[in-house]
Amino acid sequence: MGDPENSYDPWRERFIVLIEEVFNFLSEAAEHHRSGVSVKAEPRLFDRNRRAVYRLRVRGELVPFRWADRVSTILFRARSILDIVMFHAVAADSKVPLTEPQARRVYFPIVFDESQWQDALGKHHLRLLSEPHKKALRSVQPFVTGNPAPRFLGEFHNRDKHRRPIDIQTTVDEEFVMLFSGVRFGNRGSGEYWIDWEDPMPAFANGAELVTYRTTHPMISAAAEDVPIAPSIIRDGQRFDLQHLLWDLLSFVTRAEAVMSDGNTSVAESMAAYFEAERTQLESFKKMMLTGDETEWLTLVTGVSPASGGYPTQPA
Fold this sequence. Notes:
2 domains; 5-stranded antiparallel sheet; 3-stranded antiparallel sheet; 11 helices
């Protein structure tokens, strides 16, 4: 994003609000799950204590009814920003002023392959774009970048307009792991063991089977396990993590605005780097939970490798 005093001022405040809405929603959703929801997997032992079947016990409101409306608002705002950016680009490139009907038909195209891109170029408002703007517009299309968010932006925006609300569910957070720390064995230990997740994952409901823990040696006991949870969008039976989807949405909108306005992608690059760092930290935390090796995660969090003997410092 460039000079805030230029002609793109009308949508810049809307863009700031979009960023605030995304981060506020994700923060509030995380806090709701921490303090208002409890999901545990409670075991029952079978086969002479060599098989533990974990069933869900759920307490609290998994998905507050306003979440779908808030996500819809975020998608509508993102869509409107893109359309405004496109209007300004077309208006700047057109040799004659747009008529009112022409202006109403200007929108930001989102296409998914080269054939659709060629079809889009035939639209009147895209024919008015300069070649640099056409090249910039193509560079942010999902079939070029691989970013999944634009597909969802267009699809869910249209679904919502046609009264098919977004399906948000609380599901197992696949970025974290269940450790089965409550399983106890005798002196021989567990021997070999297997963890069999239900496929597909069940909807969260009391009594639903989630996972089976099998061993070659009998268990003495098994205790309830906390189930890591996260809000997800469900589309055609598939689960898409809502946090990552909204991160990708912000990255897409930020870069699209930049390349279609002044070409200054510094904010887009900073945002992409921030989200990448967050993802890397999440992956290292998951690795630490699985292996017990804290080195990589502590280095990312503190900026100091434990092997160096150093510790992060703060000013007095």
